[in-house]
Write a structure and sequence with these properties.
The protein is mainly α. It has five helices and no strands. α4 runs antiparallel to α5. The longest helix is centred in the N-terminal third of the chain and has 17 residues.
């Protein structure tokens, strides 16, 4: 017998929170959902983050966002799109060389 769970994540982000902080929260949620292999919910929170991505210039947050974008494309079987994202990220000098090789 296989026991599964079907829980729906609901996160309420205060409207008074700055957009940059909201973006960080959403990206963190997306990363956690992808680690849990819940790509459907991850994409939902990714879409929320995509609306706020213009609000930051923080390189780390932008890199995490782009990596989430690549992983969601991978889960959605959009392999060409995912490959383009991974290839783009492999050229970013701020990412450890070993991680860049892993992306390729």
């Amino acid at each position: 017998m296989v026991c599964g769970y079907n829980t729906r994540l609901t996160v309420i982000v205060p409207s008074t929170m700055p957009d940059e902080d909201k973006l960080r929260v959403y990206v963190r949620i997306v990363r956690l959902l992808l680690e849990d292999e819940d790509s459907v919910q991850a994409e939902s929170y990714y879409n929320r983050a995509a609306l706020l991505v213009h609000s930051t210039s923080d390189k780390e947050t932008l890199l995490q966002f782009k990596l989430c974008q690549a992983r969601i494309s991978d889960y959605a079987r959009k392999f060409l799109e995912a490959a383009m994202r991974y290839h783009e990220l492999s050229w970013v000098a701020e990412i450890d060389e070993e991680e860049r090789r892993h992306m390729l």
